[in-house]
Amino acid sequence: xxxxxxxxxxxxxxxxxxxxxxxxxxxxxxxxxxxxxxxxxxxxxxxxxxxxxxxxxxxxxxxxxxxxxxxxxxxxxxxxxxxxxxxxxxxxxxxxxxxxxxxxxxxxxxxxxxxxxxxxxxxxxxxxxxxxxxxxxxxxxxxxxxxxxxxxxxxxxxxxxxxxxxxxxx
Length: 170
Fold this sequence. Notes:
The protein has helices spanning 4-14, 16-21, 41-57, 89-92, 116-126; strands spanning 2-3, 25-30, 36-37, 64-72, 75-82, 130-136, 140-148. It is α+β, with helices and mostly antiparallel strands. The longest helix has 17 residues, at 41-57. It is globular and about 45 Å long.
């Protein structure tokens, strides 16, 4: 069991120098001071890091990135929103496909491997959650992760003795 607020705040803080270097405003918002959540910390850090890397990569100087976390009914919602180029509507359905790369303005920013967002989706699904993307060309993109709170969705094998979640353990 992890307190997701300081966990996410720490990850976002690691990106402040890169955001400053790219002249992008980076902000973390949380409606509450602590939200306990069962996660595999290492895997979940990879997912959030990937979303933040993309946000910084595709947000031009003068833009902004907001990472936020809120409790919504029996779930926790984590979002990473940027004011970057946005993703064309016809390509949104494919961005979580392994090796898929968005064409157009993204090519100007350097290509990735096409694995990152597929990995993020896999990690979110391993946590019994879902990820949605909302984007408007020229306005920006928001990735929204929704994870169930509590432990009713976990099997005993998915909960480690120290209370942390080991979602991917065999």
